[in-house]
Amino acid sequence: MGYSLSAYVWPVVLLVGSNLFMTLAWYGHLKYPGKPLAIVILASWGIAFFEYCLQVPANRWGHAVYSAPQLKGMQEVITLLVFAAFSTTYLGESLKWNHWAGFALIVVAAVLIAWK
After folding, report:
1. Exposed, middle or buried by CB within 10 Å (0-12, 13-18, 19+), for 23?
2. Which residue from 19, 47, 61, 105 could staple onto 25, CB 3.0 to 4.6 Å apart?
3. Distance CA 15, CA 86 (A)
4. Smallest Cα–Cα separation from 74: which of 5, 14, 6?
5. pLDDT (tens digit, 9 = 90+) per residue, 66-100?
6. pLDDT confidence of 116, banded at 50, 70, 90?
7. Short-list 65, 82, 59, CA closest to 3
8. HEC secondary structure over the chain
């Protein structure tokens, strides 16, 4: 069965969007350590709602052209890229060589997962 290019691209675009929300929900509060934990949890849940609104269709539609392990591998690489940008730009925490080396090993794992 042939699929259009958009069938391969849209899941990736949606996964990038969902990761932006996920990273903000998981790590955005670190910039505000004085905020009450209950408020931070509620805010994170609210942000995570939008993550799920993108992530679920990404995996549902993506599964038509990618296997579940391939989608998970993509998710991990996208997560690393989004997190690296977020950490340096929003949190002001640069990544060291060992972080990059660890991330590279995860990318190698994702490539092995995607290998047909």
Report:
1. buried
2. 47
3. 16
4. 14
5. 999 999 999 999 999 999 999 999 999 999 999 99
6. low
7. 65
8. CCCCHHHHHHHHHHHHHHHHHHHHHHHHHHHCCCCCHHHHHHHHHHHHHHHHHHHHHHHHHHCCCCCHHHHHHHHHHHHHHHHHHHHHHCCCCCCCHHHHHHHHHHHHHHHHHHCC
Q: Give the global pTM.
A: 0.88
Render the burial of 37-76: b for 16+ CB within 10 Å, e for the rest.
eeebeebbeebbebbeebbeebbeebeebbeeebbebbbb
Reported as a single tens digit per residue, the pLDDT across 12-67 is: 999 999 999 999 999 999 999 999 999 999 999 999 999 999 999 999 999 999 99
